[in-house]
Amino acid sequence: MKNLMSRLLSSRNYNTKYDDMALTVLRVFIGLTMAFSHGLGKLPPSEMLISGVAALGFPMPELFAWSAGLAEFAGGILLAIGLLTRPAAAFVVITMMVAAFGAHAADPFAKKEMALLFLFSSLFFVLHGAGRWSVDHLITKKK
What we know:
Elements: H1 2-9, H2 17-39, H3 47-55, H4 61-81, H5 85-103, H6 109-128, H7 135-140
C-alpha cells in the first residue's frame, strides 16, 4: 500500500509503458482533433478566412490563410502519427498564437480557450517530442 501511495503522489517519471501509452493517446487525440475539427474545414480557405487574415494585417492573406489551414490539418496529422512531431507542433503553436492573440484578442477567454489549449498542448510536444510510440522514434532509434 505504501508503494502504491508513493507512486500515486510522486512527481517522478517512472518511464513505464503506461507513460508511453498516455503520451501516445494525448498526441493522437490532439493531432486528430486539430486536423479534422479545425484544419479540414479551412481547406481550401474560405473568403471569410482570407478576409479575417487580411484584417489581422498579414500581407498576402490568401497565402497565410492556406498556411493556417495546412498547419492545422497537415500539422495535426503529422502530430497524430508522430512524424516530424516537433516542427509540426511548432507550426500549430504559431497558428494558435495568431488565433488566440490576434483573431480572438478582444474576445472573452471562453472564445480563446480552445486556441490556448491547442497552443499549450502543441508546445508540450515541441519541447518533449513524440515519445517512443511514434514514427519519429522508429526512424531515429539506434539499432
